Amino acid sequence: VIETCHEVQTDGYVEYNFVVFRVGEKVQQNAKTQFYVIHCIPKLFLVNQTIRVNNTFKSNTITDVMSTIWGEYVKGGEQLNVIGCENVSHIVCQNQTLFLTYGWLLKQAYRKKTADFLFYQADHSRWQIKPISEMYDRSHTNVTIFQKPASLRQNGEYLFQNQTYNVLNMESQNYDSAMNLANGYYKNKLQSYDFFKKTSSENTFTFGDDTPEDAVNKNWTDSVFEAENANVTFVSKVSNLTDGNNSCNEAEAWLQSRKQSLLKLEQENTIVHLAGSAKMYEWLAKTVNFDMPNQSDLNDENFDRKRKGKYLVTAIAHYLNPNGYVVNLELVKRRLEE
Length: 338
Fold this sequence. Notes:
Elements: E1 2-4, E2 12-14, E3 19-28, E4 34-41, H1 43-47, E5 56-61, H2 62-73, E6 79-82, E7 88-92, H3 98-106, E8 117-123, E9 126-131, H4 132-138, E10 140-146, E11 169-173, H5 177-183, E12 187-194, E13 199-206, H6 212-217, E14 232-237, H7 255-263, E15 269-275, E16 287-291, E17 309-321, E18 324-332
Parallel strand pairs: 6-9, 10-16, 12-14
Antiparallel strand pairs: 1-2, 3-4, 5-7, 8-9, 11-15, 12-13, 15-18, 16-17, 17-18
Helix pairs in contact: 2-3
């Protein structure tokens, strides 16, 4: 049970229900005292290990397939909210657990040429399937977190009414160009062979092909990053099998976009530490505004024009002990902008 009262919108009373699956790391302090760690997880994580999905579906959208699987296998009041994808496919589930089946299906789902669907736990008994683009463009908290610039004193002109959302500490990982190159972030190539038509094909995917807004804002030239051969995937196609309607036969529509969609979550990645507030968990997969201090000596502005603004919350960790309550947020900026 957590209850906070900081006079902010994330205050309140929250009760979490977990299943204890391990008691370990016991340390004997003295003859009468022993410390140990209790490991807990939501019940569905354990139930997942008992589920094996072996259904077959014909001419369904992938997100409809996932909704049907949820209704058949998940009981006990767990809810799934789904934003639908566009592609229709024949699906043969491979007798894997629920979560592994969802992971396999999600990477094939796309909408508006972008394969960026994710599955996550939004609340105690509520789960969500939603594209990253939808999270970033339409799911807002209307909250601003901040780190006061060192140039401003307590009585300076940048005055906040409440210090709860003041960033206590932060660390940033902007990008890793070598890792991006190897993983196909700038460009990647798909090679395929159709065993019925006995033909080969090749498709090169460039950053921004699935998202025009990203293509406009990319800050390199193709002559610098002739990178398609750094990341090559081969797919076998069977055009006359299942009327040709399966994910492998349309791999160009999702496989290459999926690589870049997930890698975008690794760019402009920032971890911030805030004073804990009970309902901050509701920020997951939503955006917050972040007033990030200017770290340049070339101008006198208090905040970084390109890096302040809207960030997507991609992970939340709560740390509680007898001395206090802190929340860590992982934030991702989809693209630099002024």
